[in-house]
Amino acid sequence: MQRRLILATHNEHKRREFARLLDGWQLEPLPASVVLPPEDGETFAANALGKARAAAAATARVSVADDSGIAAAALGGAPGVRSARYAGEHASDEQNLAKLLREAPAGSALEYVCVIAHVDPRDGGGFGYDPAFLPDDGPAGLTMAELSDQQKDAISHRGIATRALLAWLRSASAPPGAEE
């Protein structure tokens, strides 16, 4: 079985690079109709997660996205999350590079930064951490979020604790001498 991922980008250069790097995975292109959110987060992680969530929500498929850029120590980490727009909203790669070279002292430390987010939309329901848990005593391969209410209640921490509470309440409210 081929493992598949939606790559949350409309950038063909990025798609080719990820295709090389993700050996053993088939990358499916993001449909052209899917609009990704603006990269206006304060961190690379926030931007990557926003794009991966948007792709997963639009396609109902496992999606990955990245946000990346350059951090110059001499510029306090700039351009950082604004790397693609460092020289202006519609600046070219050449314009961004020229600005960086003008502003960062020669020989100053530069760092490439890349954060990748993975979103699996198969949660089906539940809340909190349910989409992340594959229970040992549940149906194989299903997360807690994918279980029916009855299946979840039978094995969940809250189901177990609530049954214990009910047993205690029944015993505490029983008249003296009554048997459970």
Q: What is the mean predicted local confidence, pLDDT?
A: 88
Low-confidence parts:
none
Q: Kindly estimate the percentage of residues that lie in beta strands according to DSSP.
A: 15-25%
Q: Distance N terminus to C terminus? A: 53 Å
The tally of strands reads 4
The percent range for helix content is 25-40%
Give the strand order, joined by hyphens, for the main sheet. 2-1-3-4
Q: What structural category do the secondary elements indicate?
A: alpha/beta
Question: What profile does the largest beta sheet have?
Answer: 4 strands, mixed
The H/E string reads: EHEHEHEHH
Describe the structure.
With 180 residues, the chain is an alpha/beta fold. Helices cover 34% and strands 17% of the residues. Strand 1, helix 1 and strand 2 form a beta-alpha-beta unit. Helix 4 packs across helix 5. The longest helix has 17 residues.
What's the short story on this structure?
The protein has helices at residues 12-21, 44-59, 93-103, 149-155, 157-173; strands at residues 3-7, 25-29, 63-72, 110-119. The chain is an alpha/beta fold and 180 residues long.
Feature tags:
single chain; 180 residues; 34% helix
Topology (SSEs and partners):
Elements: E1 3-7, H1 12-21, E2 25-29, H2 44-59, E3 63-72, H3 93-103, E4 110-119, H4 149-155, H5 157-173
Parallel strand pairs: 1-2, 1-3
Antiparallel strand pairs: 3-4
